[in-house]
Amino acid sequence: MDETLKKRLTELANRSYGQGVYCFTHFLDLAGRSDFMSLVPSLPPVPWTLFGGAEGCERQMLRFGSEDLCGYDQPFPIAILRLAPLSAKFAEPLTHRDYLGSLMALGMERELLGDIVVRKDAAYLFCEERIAPYIAEHFVQARHTSLSAEIIPELPEGALFETKRMLVQVASQRVDALVAHVFKMSRGDAQALFPAGKVFVSGRLCESPGHAPRPGDVISVRGFGRFRYCGVESLSKKGKENTAVELFV
User: Fold this and answer.
1) Domain of 199: which CATH number?
2) What's the N-to-C CA distance of the chain in angstroms?
3) Which of 18, 84, 78 is nearest to 50 (CA)?
4) What is the pLDDT of residues 15-71, one digit of tens each?
């Protein structure tokens, strides 16, 4: 566990519980979220919530406090920016890496930024509210494409995080078998990801290749992607289990 993060989370939890005020972290990545979940039993009984700006966000901000404890409601200080080419005709196909690299070049710290969701016509950035005006003013280019960055009050209608339904055949419902089939790698390569700390199940570090996920669990593999486990749908003629997953695309 990251000892610096542990100390910071403990301080925030104690302050919220002792003073009856809301306390927020920066955006936590999967490892930070997993460390927090391991720390929960040792914290004071303060209400907490994880949220990234929209359902499905992987990078999330942690809020200690509740209306019952504090006597008032305080929303998460998260802003949403729509990043779009000034000229769609001359725009390059930009990736998550392109957007993130340009933001880093502006001097942004990664912990101040949440998810960047790339869609066909635009990208959506979640960030801390206080830095949103700076990004809106200065984020004008990614690679060779000129961009506009606009703070928007809410997301457009429709699913922001798109998934593709897949059926994979596995001999058993082990997370290593699922990872191997979904990301098209050998079973040995999949198993090597676990001691490297690259596999998370519903936000918690998974160190056991034999772990059996539950329907609804989101399995994230650093460097490869993530998918939602939906469960066994049927058996093949050879006795293998036809398992449904939803791959985030």
Assistant:
1) 3.10.290.10
2) 30
3) 78
4) 999 999 999 999 999 999 999 999 999 999 999 999 999 999 999 999 999 999 999
Domains: count for the chain: 3
110 inside domain: yes
Number of Cβ within 10 Å of residue 214's Cβ equals 10
Report the distance separating Cα 219 and Cα 168, nearest Å.
15
Shared domain check, 129 and 64: no
* Closest by Cα among 55, 8, 50, 53 to 30: 50
Closest CA to 211 of 194, 231, 235: 194
Last residue of a domain, one of 124, 152, 180: 152
Going by C-beta distance under 8 Å and a sequence separation of 6 or more, which residues neighbour residue 39? 1, 6, 9, 10
Residue in the structure block whose two tokens are 């699922």: 178
CATH of the domain at 27: 3.30.1370
